[in-house]
Write a structure and sequence with these properties.
It is a multi-pass membrane protein. This protein is an alpha+beta fold. Helices cover about 25% and strands about 25% of the residues. The chain has two domains: about 25-145, Orthogonal Bundle (Helix Hairpins); about 150-310, G protein-activated inward rectifier potassium channel 1 (Immunoglobulin-like, Sandwich). The chain is elongated and about 105 Å long.
């Protein structure tokens, strides 16, 4: 059995790659900060290390060049001679002076003298350049570390969706849960049905997106996610599953993309978690097992039963039939 290609993986990663950008790839450089934030951690760390290493070596070389052109390297041990930077004898000593200046360590052994205007100009340039590089790279690393992507790891979706009756209506249902005690403020859930179709004009749409109503009109899509919730899509005449039956489900090809968005209570940043269900992950005539129980003064959630389902009597016919 070969697994069908998914548009969105179960972990929320979108299987879309952009190619043949041509001249449009220059847009990534025009937004360099976002480009660096979007890179993987290994590339971020490599760029971080290379930028500082190259900048340090270049600036140390400039300090060494000033000392070399002034002849300070040959007369550094002469007590009567006033060099540009005291106690700079070679490139390692120039590099150490640059590090002391850049990191504001100030050991006091190496320092700029007042008879070196070019050294004072280079010192000002180094201070400005160092501030810009620090602000850019450290800001990039801070934003990347504070991204709420990892918060989505503690938001759970059931492995399968089910179709069964609820309140006398045939419904498509799946379960969501929050593993943390911190809440998702203004949590909202949306569903997209991705299915290929052909228009009456003959146009073929390979990944047509259709909205699945999960309570937009009634406000049921606004979640108070303190315990696992079962999200319900009523299959009616306006639903794209109006003609879906237990038999036709076996021959259908579709994907249901679920998007859960909310604000992380602890950081105030927006977080998005995604998953998807293909037709072979939709169980006809099943219902989720209860996971809530009342203990001594509190409600207990048993996450070992979070994905569990059981069969219930369900008509095998579509709503249209």
């Amino acid at each position: 059995h070969r697994e069908r290609q998914r548009f969105v993986d179960k972990n929320g990663r979108c299987n879309v790659q952009h190619g043949n950008l041509g001249g449009e790839s220059s847009r990534y450089l025009s937004d360099l900060f976002t480009t660096l934030v979007d890179l993987k951690w290994r590339w971020n760390l490599l760029i971080f290390l290379l930028t500082y290493t190259v900048a340090w070596l270049v600036m140390a070389s400039m300090w060494w060049g000033i000392a070399y052109l002034r002849g300070d390297l040959h007369q550094a041990h002469d007590d009567t001679y006033s060099p540009c930077v005291a106690n700079v004898y070679n490139f390692p000593s120039a590099f150490l002076f640059f590090i002391e200046t850049e990191a504001t360590i100030g050991y006091g052994h190496r320092y700029i003298t007042e008879r070196c205007p070019e050294g004072i100009v280079l010192f000002l340039f180094q201070s400005l350049l160092g501030s810009v590089v620090d602000a850019f790279l450290i800001g990039c690393m801070f934003i990347k570390m504070s991204q709420p992507k990892k918060r989505a790891e503690t938001l759970m979706f059931s492995r399968a969706a089910v179709i069964s009756q609820r309140d006398g209506r045939l419904c498509l249902m799946f379960r969501v849960g929050n593993l943390r005690n911190s809440h998702m403020v203004s949590a909202q859930i949306r569903c997209k049905l991705i299915k290929s179709r052909q228009t009456p004009e003959g146009e073929f749409l390979p990944l047509d997106q259709c909205e699945l109503d999960v309570g937009f009109g009634t406000g049921a899509d606004q979640l108070f996610l303190v315990s696992p919730l079962t999200i319900c899509h009523e299959i009616n005449s306006e639903s794209p599953f109006f003609c879906l039956s237990q038999r036709s489900l076996r021959s259908e090809q579709f994907e249901i993309v679920v998007i859960l968005e909310g604000i992380v209570e602890t950081t105030g940043m927006t977080c998005q978690a995604r998953t998807s269900y293909t037709e072979d992950e939709v169980l006809w005539g099943h219902r989720f097992l209860p996971v809530m129980s009342l203990e001594n003064g509190f409600f207990r959630v048993d996450y070992s039963q979070f994905h569990a389902t059981f069969e219930v009597p369900t008509p095998p016919y579509s709503v249209k039939e």
